[in-house]
Amino acid sequence: MFFHKVFLAIQHQGPRHGNSHEAEPAVPIDRAGPIDHTVPAMKLNIDHHVHTRYSNCCNEDYGLKEIIEAQNANGMSYVCVSDHIHTARDTGGLEDHHRALATLPSSYKELPVYLGVEMTFTSPEGDIPVDPGALPAPPSFTIGGCHHFPWDKDLTMGDVPGGRAKLARMTEQGLTELLLQHHRLLQGAVQKARIDILAHPFDFFFRLGIFDARLLDMFHDTVRLCKKHRVAIEVNNASARRCDAEEKKNTPFNSQCIAPKKFFSALITMAMEEKVPLSPASDAHARNDIGCFDSLLPYLEEAGAGPGDFLRLDSLDTFSKSV
C-alpha cells in the first residue's frame, strides 16, 4: 500500500450551494487575534469513525442507510462506517453493510461509501483479533484502538469506576510500568502494519482521568513509527469532549499530570510536526453525533491545521493494508 499525504477541504461554516458533493476550497482563517472557540471557523467534511447497530456499544438502532442520510445532510465528501471487531468471532457487520448498500436506491450511492472496521488490540504486543483480509468481506480500511489493557482484565472501558479504583491503589512503580506497557502495545500495533489508522490515542487513560506527561514523552516514538509505517493518527471528537470535561473537574491524578486540554493539543501538534496525516473521527454511537466535531474543531484551529494535514480515503488508489 502506498500511503500518500493528501488534502482535506476545510470549508467555511455555512450552507452548501447546489447539489455538488465536490470538496469546497479551503477558506483562510484570520489568525491576527485570539481564536473564538464558541463559533468554529471551519468545518470538516469527512468522518472516518462511525458506528452502527453492529457495534454493541451503539446507543441507537440504525444502520448504513441512516449514516448515508446523515453524511449527505452534513455535506460530507464520502461515507464511512467502522464497527467494532473485539474478538475473532466478530465481523463488524461488513457482510450486512455490503448487502444493505446493494439494495439501496441509486440516490443513496451518489457519495462514495467506505466500509471499514475498528479492531481492538488484544495482546500486550498490539495484535488484532483477526487479519482484515481474512474477513468474509474485507474492509476498505482498518482502524485499531486500545479499549482495554490486555494484561489486566480489571482495566477495561467496560468498568471505568473499577479501573479508577484500582489505579488509586496502584503504587508509583506500578503506574510507571502500566504506562510503559501501553507504550509497547502502541508501538507493536503500528509496527505490525495491519492497521491504517491509530484510533483515539490515550482515550482509555482520559476516561480514567490520567493525563500523565510521560505518555506524551513516549508517544514521540510512536508518532515516528506511524510515519514510517504509513499509519494515520486519529483526532477524535469524543476524546476532545472528554478532555474538555476533565479540564473543568480540575482533579489531576498525580503530580505528573498536565492540563487535559494541553495534553490533547500536544497530541495533535506532535503528529503535525512529523507530518503524519490526521484522521478526523466523530466516533459516533448515535445519529446526532455523526459528522459532529464540535469539541475537536477548536483544537485543530489552535494547532493551525490546514488542508494538507488530513487523510482522505477518496484520494488513495489503494488504502487498506488488508487488500
Q: Number of helix segments? A: 9
Specify the biggest β-sheet.
Answer: 6 strands, parallel
Low-confidence stretches: 1-41, 317-323
How large is the radius of gyration?
19 Å
> Superfamily at the CATH H level?
Metal-dependent hydrolases
Query: What is the 3D form?
Result: globular
Count of distinct structural domains: 1
Describe the fold and architecture.
This protein has nine helices and eight strands. The strands form two sheets. A six-stranded parallel beta sheet has the order 3-4-5-6-7-8. The chain has a two-stranded antiparallel ribbon with strand order 1-2. Mean pLDDT is 84; it is low at 1-41 and 317-323. It has one domain (41-315): Metal-dependent hydrolases (TIM Barrel), CATH 3.20.20.140. Strand 3 (79-85), helix 2 and strand 4 (113-120) form a beta-alpha-beta unit. Helix 4 packs parallel to helix 6 (213-228) and helix 7 runs antiparallel to helix 8 (260-273). The chain is of the alpha/beta class and 323 residues long.
